[in-house]
Amino acid sequence: MTSKGESSKDRILNAAETLIMQRGFAGTSVDDILKGAGLTKGAFFHHFDGKGALVRELVERHAQKDIAFFMDLARQAEEQSDDPLEQVFLFMESFEGYVSKLGEQPPGCIYAVYTYESMQFEPAIREIVADTLRQWTAIYVRKFHEVLDRYEPAVPVTARELAEMVVSVIEGGFVLARAYNDGRLTARQSEYFRKYLKLLFAGKAKKVQPRRAGAKAFA
């Protein structure tokens, strides 16, 4: 495919994502997308068989970006500290900083938009969404396993329970932020979850787990 072809495809996907986040899938027609992209139907059907194919590629592209984003946040946190609990805090603080910069108009979540309109499209797209959320959750599961290996929680809890909780907090935060038109709400919910973690693990470091050189103390 030529670079011109790639550019037109990106223009279609970018226009589609913007409109779908504003209007939903049902409220966005192919004509609306082409008007936003400044392209013709010939360009659209050169890349996609129809609206369903466009939606599938749009969700896949969004999913790939999301997973890469969260994996990068985890990598950066691991480079900054050897303490697994502090890594989780750094990870979440970086995420909060990112969503806080998105502006006063909350962008919402394409997974939530799709989930409520999933009956319009093939089941395979729902599985893409579900698999993305599982991968996202798995990043947190790994981090919380590391935390539980070193810290004793104040009440019994598993890494998966904590991971599913934080994903629910963030996804729910996006929905509420859109409903209330509050661009800071998702970041605030993430901050409250960090406070919960501090209460859950405060003063509970396990003596049997040696810390590596350079690790910071949890305060």
General description of the model:
It contains nine helices and no strands. It has 219 residues and is an all-alpha fold.
Helical amount among residues, as a percent range? over 70%
Radius of gyration in whole Å, from Cα? Answer: 20 Å
| Sheet of most strands | none
Strand content is: under 5%
Shape estimate: elongated
First-last Cα distance: 54 Å
**Quaternary organisation:** single chain
Class derived from helix and strand content: mainly alpha
Q: Would you count the extended β strands for me?
A: 0
Task: Give me the strand/helix succession.
Answer: HHHHHHHHH
Average residue-wise pLDDT: 86
Q: Point out poorly predicted stretches.
A: 207-219
Number of helices: 9
Outline the fold blueprint.
Layout: H1 3-23, H2 30-37, H3 41-47, H4 51-80, H5 84-100, H6 110-116, H7 123-150, H8 159-180, H9 185-201
Helix pairs in contact: 1-2, 4-5, 4-7, 5-7, 5-9, 7-8, 8-9
Quick overview of this protein structure:
This protein has 219 residues and is an all-alpha fold. The protein has 9 helices and no strands. It is elongated, with a radius of gyration of 20 Å.
Features:
9 helices; mainly alpha; 219 residues
